[in-house]
Amino acid sequence: MKAFECKKCGTCCYGEGGILVDERETGVIAAFLNTSVETFLKIHCEARNGKRYVKSGADGYCVFFNKDRGCLIHQVKPAPCRLWPFYPALLKDPESWREAMNACPGINPDASHEDFLKEAGE
Description:
39% of the residues lie in helices and 11% in strands. By secondary structure, it is α+β, with helices and mostly antiparallel strands. It has one domain (11-121). Helix 1 (23-32) crosses helix 2. The two termini are 14 Å apart.
């Protein structure tokens, strides 16, 4: 039994600007998009507190999420996207994990927090 299997529903792609991108990732994503880092940052990112975040579109989803095609930069997605749902807070706190399970259809409701921790370590 898998504790998590992505359903590509986009639930984790919804929300206002929480996807941090570091300098290395901006270069990789810009190259993937066949554009300059400067253009990528100008069009797709916003600066807050000295850091860069991927913008959300008018629909509230990440600008790289397409409801028909899913993540348009899946092959080079930023660390927060690659890590989901195995965030430190969800690994440490079973209550936070249960809240995430209620929001994310990819988290198996039959899995225990221990199952989730085991899968995170694999």
